[in-house]
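Researcher: Hi, I'm a grad student and pretty new to this. My advisor asked me to get structures for two proteins we've been looking at. I'm not sure of the right format, so I'll just paste the first sequence and hope you can take it from there.
Model: That works fine. Here's the first sequence with its structure tokens right after it:
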Amino acid sequence: MRGRRWALWAVQSAGAELCVLVGRMGAPKAPSLAATMDVMVACAAFVQAASGLTFGVIRCLQKFVNYT
């Protein structure tokens, strides 16, 4: 369980950093459009990976949560 939470944290952090990088690429001295699109696609991949990892963490936590 601990490894899954660390993986989720790492993937979410990487996605957030890429999101900030995409935002900073809009500056006047920005790199090419292709570089911006590459970073955006990588950001989207990390967001999708975080969504999948969330389901792995939730399944493990359901064993410990008492639904009354």
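Researcher: Oh nice, that was easy. Here's the second one.
Model: And its structure:
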Amino acid sequence: MVQQGQIDHLLQETGEIQPPDFLVRQAFLQDYEGAYRDSMDSPEAFWEGVASELEWTRRWDSVFPVGLPHLPLVPGREVQHHPERP
């Protein structure tokens, strides 16, 4: 039987595993730091941009109607559902 503390060193990860280059090139978000900065500098514009990438049956009036930090994002709006799309 394993005693407590005998395998604890295995739970302490200190390394970082980088994804392969081909996977990085296929990533949707190429500039994480830039996207994060944009989301913090102008959250309404950032999330409106993200929401505009979806197909809506009815567009929203405001992105954060209650105000930050309270969500939901674009409440009451309807996203066009495509059952044939994953």
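Researcher: Is there anything I should tell my advisor about the second?
Model: You could mention this: The mean pLDDT is 76.
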